[in-house]
Amino acid sequence: xxxxxxxxxxxxxxxxxxxxxxxxxxxxxxxxxxxxxxxxxxxxxxxxxxxxxxxxxxxxxxxxxxxxxxxxxxxxxxxxxxxxxxxxxxxxxxxxxxxxxxxxxxxxxxxxxx
Amino acid sequence: xxxxxxxxxxxxxxxxxxxxxxxxxxxxxxxxxxxxxxxxxxxxxxxxxxxxxxxxxxxxxxxxxxxxxxxxxxxxxxxxxxxxxxxxxxxxxxxxxxxxxxxxxxxxxxxxxx
Lengths: 114, 114
Hints:
heterodimer; A: mainly beta; four-stranded antiparallel sheet; globular; B: mainly beta; six-stranded mixed sheet
Protein backbone atom coordinates (compact mmCIF):
# COMPACT_ATOMS: atom_id res chain seq x y z
CA UNK A 1 0.00 0.00 0.00
CA UNK A 2 1.07 3.55 -0.60
CA UNK A 3 2.34 5.55 2.33
CA UNK A 4 3.93 8.93 2.91
CA UNK A 5 6.37 9.82 5.68
CA UNK A 6 7.15 13.30 6.85
CA UNK A 7 10.14 13.26 9.11
CA UNK A 8 9.53 16.33 11.18
CA UNK A 9 6.46 16.84 13.31
CA UNK A 10 7.23 20.39 14.36
CA UNK A 11 9.91 22.73 13.03
CA UNK A 12 10.71 26.07 14.64
CA UNK A 13 12.75 28.61 12.69
CA UNK A 14 13.63 32.27 12.90
CA UNK A 15 12.75 34.58 10.04
CA UNK A 16 15.22 34.47 7.15
CA UNK A 17 16.33 30.94 8.03
CA UNK A 18 16.32 28.32 5.28
CA UNK A 19 13.72 25.59 5.31
CA UNK A 20 13.77 22.00 4.19
CA UNK A 21 10.94 19.63 5.04
CA UNK A 22 11.45 15.98 4.30
CA UNK A 23 8.95 13.75 2.53
CA UNK A 24 9.40 10.13 1.49
CA UNK A 25 6.81 7.93 -0.12
CA UNK A 26 6.36 4.25 -0.59
CA UNK A 27 4.91 3.14 -3.91
CA UNK A 28 6.27 1.00 -6.70
CA UNK A 29 4.70 2.73 -9.67
CA UNK A 30 4.36 6.15 -11.18
CA UNK A 31 3.10 8.77 -8.77
CA UNK A 32 2.04 12.36 -8.74
CA UNK A 33 3.43 14.37 -5.83
CA UNK A 34 1.98 17.33 -4.00
CA UNK A 35 2.68 19.71 -1.16
CA UNK A 36 -0.34 21.31 0.44
CA UNK A 37 -0.29 24.03 3.10
CA UNK A 38 -2.84 24.84 5.78
CA UNK A 39 -2.48 28.30 7.29
CA UNK A 40 -4.05 28.84 10.72
CA UNK A 41 -7.82 28.95 10.38
CA UNK A 42 -7.74 28.36 6.63
CA UNK A 43 -8.37 25.38 4.41
CA UNK A 44 -5.83 23.25 2.59
CA UNK A 45 -4.35 24.84 -0.49
CA UNK A 46 -1.87 23.64 -3.04
CA UNK A 47 1.72 24.84 -2.78
CA UNK A 48 3.17 22.91 -5.68
CA UNK A 49 2.88 19.65 -7.56
CA UNK A 50 4.98 17.29 -9.66
CA UNK A 51 3.54 15.12 -12.39
CA UNK A 52 6.43 14.68 -14.82
CA UNK A 53 9.33 16.51 -16.44
CA UNK A 54 11.80 18.71 -14.57
CA UNK A 55 12.17 17.19 -11.09
CA UNK A 56 12.69 20.63 -9.56
CA UNK A 57 9.33 22.31 -9.28
CA UNK A 58 8.56 25.79 -8.15
CA UNK A 59 5.40 26.73 -6.34
CA UNK A 60 3.78 29.75 -4.82
CA UNK A 61 5.38 32.06 -2.25
CA UNK A 62 8.95 31.09 -3.13
CA UNK A 63 8.64 27.40 -2.29
CA UNK A 64 10.22 24.69 -4.37
CA UNK A 65 10.53 20.93 -4.17
CA UNK A 66 12.80 18.37 -5.74
CA UNK A 67 11.67 14.92 -6.79
CA UNK A 68 14.45 12.35 -6.38
CA UNK A 69 13.10 9.12 -7.80
CA UNK A 70 15.94 6.94 -6.55
CA UNK A 71 15.30 8.10 -3.00
CA UNK A 72 11.50 8.16 -3.24
CA UNK A 73 11.70 11.68 -1.89
CA UNK A 74 10.01 15.00 -2.55
CA UNK A 75 11.49 17.48 -0.11
CA UNK A 76 10.13 20.99 0.21
CA UNK A 77 12.50 23.95 0.41
CA UNK A 78 12.48 27.68 0.84
CA UNK A 79 15.69 29.72 1.08
CA UNK A 80 14.37 32.33 3.50
CA UNK A 81 11.21 31.87 5.54
CA UNK A 82 8.90 34.60 6.74
CA UNK A 83 6.64 34.80 9.77
CA UNK A 84 3.68 34.43 7.36
CA UNK A 85 4.92 30.94 6.43
CA UNK A 86 3.78 29.69 9.82
CA UNK A 87 1.43 26.86 8.89
CA UNK A 88 1.11 23.11 8.64
CA UNK A 89 2.58 21.48 5.54
CA UNK A 90 1.37 18.21 4.08
CA UNK A 91 3.08 16.04 1.52
CA UNK A 92 0.78 13.83 -0.56
CA UNK A 93 0.89 11.35 -3.43
CA UNK A 94 -1.59 9.77 -5.75
CA UNK A 95 -1.44 7.26 -8.53
CA UNK A 96 -2.34 8.77 -11.91
CA UNK A 97 -4.15 5.66 -13.06
CA UNK A 98 -6.17 5.13 -9.94
CA UNK A 99 -9.06 7.05 -8.50
CA UNK A 100 -6.73 9.92 -7.73
CA UNK A 101 -7.34 9.89 -3.99
CA UNK A 102 -4.49 11.50 -2.12
CA UNK A 103 -2.38 9.69 0.44
CA UNK A 104 -1.12 12.24 2.91
CA UNK A 105 1.77 12.38 5.30
CA UNK A 106 0.97 13.30 8.88
CA UNK A 107 2.03 16.88 8.33
CA UNK A 108 4.79 19.14 9.60
CA UNK A 109 3.92 22.15 11.67
CA UNK A 110 6.20 25.09 10.90
CA UNK A 111 6.49 27.93 13.40
CA UNK A 112 8.48 30.97 12.29
CA UNK A 113 9.60 33.35 15.00
CA UNK A 114 9.63 37.03 14.02
CA UNK B 1 -15.13 31.65 -9.03
CA UNK B 2 -16.65 30.00 -5.98
CA UNK B 3 -14.65 27.33 -4.29
CA UNK B 4 -15.73 24.14 -2.57
CA UNK B 5 -18.19 24.85 0.20
CA UNK B 6 -19.15 22.68 3.13
CA UNK B 7 -21.85 22.87 5.75
CA UNK B 8 -22.17 23.05 8.64
CA UNK B 9 -18.78 24.45 9.59
CA UNK B 10 -19.14 23.00 13.07
CA UNK B 11 -21.33 20.21 14.38
CA UNK B 12 -21.62 19.03 17.95
CA UNK B 13 -23.65 15.91 18.53
CA UNK B 14 -24.24 13.32 21.17
CA UNK B 15 -22.92 9.81 20.93
CA UNK B 16 -25.38 7.58 19.11
CA UNK B 17 -26.97 10.31 17.00
CA UNK B 18 -26.81 10.43 13.21
CA UNK B 19 -25.21 13.37 11.40
CA UNK B 20 -25.19 14.60 7.81
CA UNK B 21 -22.41 16.68 6.35
CA UNK B 22 -22.80 18.50 3.06
CA UNK B 23 -20.35 19.36 0.29
CA UNK B 24 -20.89 21.62 -2.72
CA UNK B 25 -18.04 21.08 -5.19
CA UNK B 26 -16.77 23.58 -7.68
CA UNK B 27 -19.20 23.84 -10.58
CA UNK B 28 -18.21 21.52 -13.43
CA UNK B 29 -15.92 19.35 -11.35
CA UNK B 30 -16.80 15.72 -11.92
CA UNK B 31 -14.59 14.17 -9.25
CA UNK B 32 -15.42 14.57 -5.56
CA UNK B 33 -13.52 13.21 -2.56
CA UNK B 34 -14.19 13.03 1.16
CA UNK B 35 -11.32 12.95 3.64
CA UNK B 36 -11.11 12.95 7.42
CA UNK B 37 -8.51 14.89 9.39
CA UNK B 38 -8.07 13.75 12.96
CA UNK B 39 -5.39 14.07 15.61
CA UNK B 40 -2.94 11.23 15.42
CA UNK B 41 -4.31 9.89 12.14
CA UNK B 42 -3.66 12.83 9.87
CA UNK B 43 -5.65 13.07 6.66
CA UNK B 44 -7.39 9.89 5.52
CA UNK B 45 -9.27 9.22 2.31
CA UNK B 46 -12.87 8.13 2.82
CA UNK B 47 -14.78 7.96 -0.47
CA UNK B 48 -14.54 9.06 -4.10
CA UNK B 49 -17.21 9.93 -6.66
CA UNK B 50 -16.57 10.31 -10.38
CA UNK B 51 -19.50 11.44 -12.48
CA UNK B 52 -22.25 8.83 -12.49
CA UNK B 53 -19.94 5.90 -11.79
CA UNK B 54 -20.23 3.76 -8.68
CA UNK B 55 -18.30 5.40 -5.85
CA UNK B 56 -15.04 4.05 -4.46
CA UNK B 57 -15.89 3.41 -0.81
CA UNK B 58 -12.62 1.71 0.07
CA UNK B 59 -11.66 4.31 2.66
CA UNK B 60 -14.82 4.26 4.75
CA UNK B 61 -13.87 3.09 8.26
CA UNK B 62 -17.11 1.26 9.05
CA UNK B 63 -20.60 0.58 7.74
CA UNK B 64 -21.87 3.45 9.88
CA UNK B 65 -20.42 5.76 7.23
CA UNK B 66 -22.13 6.31 3.90
CA UNK B 67 -22.21 8.99 1.26
CA UNK B 68 -24.20 9.91 -1.78
CA UNK B 69 -23.88 12.39 -4.57
CA UNK B 70 -27.07 13.59 -6.16
CA UNK B 71 -27.14 14.79 -9.74
CA UNK B 72 -23.40 14.59 -9.99
CA UNK B 73 -22.98 17.68 -7.85
CA UNK B 74 -23.77 18.04 -4.14
CA UNK B 75 -22.61 15.26 -1.84
CA UNK B 76 -23.77 14.25 1.62
CA UNK B 77 -21.68 12.22 4.05
CA UNK B 78 -23.79 10.47 6.68
CA UNK B 79 -22.48 9.01 9.89
CA UNK B 80 -24.94 6.84 11.79
CA UNK B 81 -24.80 6.12 15.52
CA UNK B 82 -21.85 8.45 15.99
CA UNK B 83 -19.02 7.46 18.30
CA UNK B 84 -16.49 9.67 20.06
CA UNK B 85 -13.75 8.40 17.74
CA UNK B 86 -15.68 9.94 14.83
CA UNK B 87 -14.71 13.39 16.12
CA UNK B 88 -12.60 14.96 13.40
CA UNK B 89 -12.62 17.54 10.63
CA UNK B 90 -14.31 16.17 7.52
CA UNK B 91 -12.92 17.64 4.32
CA UNK B 92 -14.36 17.59 0.84
CA UNK B 93 -12.33 18.15 -2.32
CA UNK B 94 -13.15 18.29 -5.99
CA UNK B 95 -11.25 18.34 -9.25
CA UNK B 96 -12.18 18.54 -12.91
CA UNK B 97 -11.53 14.89 -13.56
CA UNK B 98 -9.22 12.77 -11.48
CA UNK B 99 -5.71 11.58 -11.17
CA UNK B 100 -3.48 14.27 -12.53
CA UNK B 101 -5.62 17.22 -11.59
CA UNK B 102 -5.21 19.33 -8.51
CA UNK B 103 -7.79 18.73 -5.80
CA UNK B 104 -9.41 21.84 -4.37
CA UNK B 105 -10.40 21.55 -0.74
CA UNK B 106 -13.29 23.02 1.15
CA UNK B 107 -13.01 24.53 4.63
CA UNK B 108 -14.19 21.36 6.32
CA UNK B 109 -16.80 20.46 8.91
CA UNK B 110 -15.53 20.05 12.46
CA UNK B 111 -17.50 17.25 14.08
CA UNK B 112 -17.45 16.82 17.83
CA UNK B 113 -19.15 13.79 19.33
CA UNK B 114 -19.80 14.14 23.06
